[in-house]
Amino acid sequence: DVKVTQSSRYLVKRTGEKVFLECVQDMDHENMFWYRQDPGLGLRLIYFSYDVKMKEKGDIPEGYSVSREKKERFSLILESASTNQTSMYLCASSAPGSSYEQYFGPGTRLTVT
Amino acid sequence: SQQGEEDPQALSIQEGENATMNCSYKTSINNLQWYRQNSGRGLVHLILIRSNEREKHSGRLRVTLDTSKKSSSLLITASRAADTASYFCATGDISSGSARQLTFGSGTQLTVLP
Description:
By secondary structure, chain A is mainly β.
């Protein structure tokens, strides 16, 4: 079974803090994704990566950056957390040449106060 | 950008009834997928239908795809209380790059009452 894990289920941070969200997958997938999920808005793609050290902006990259130093790990960084970044963050991975099926982690609910 | 739009936004039915959810999308797609999300958890892949397919079954799930109308439906037959969850459609666009990113809709919240 594919397993995607995220470093925290719940996280509370203060405005202005630098926040790291970690995601690890164990299936040797090339593609990894970070989404945020807000009520009524569905999932919105923040960043994705199709290879080590490669990254592409999604639909809402502002205020975020990412790092992919190893194939299995994809980190989302909030450089200076703001209250409007309070959200559920979901990481996913998929295999290349697949039919796009994505495997998701359990999510991190981030609250910025 | 949001591609899929689910309808209805919320659906409440009795156990044993069938549940039907619809999804509309805007661009040309390679495939369409349905995912399920239990409250506060990640998404789980349910079923994928390719653009050259019209109908697909998996257990109690039936998915249809009408590319001329750019729409899909997910039917869950003989629903159970454990089917209570949010259901999302996601499209794999023909124009997406090698990473094969998906575009998700805003979801249908299904409640199955015992």
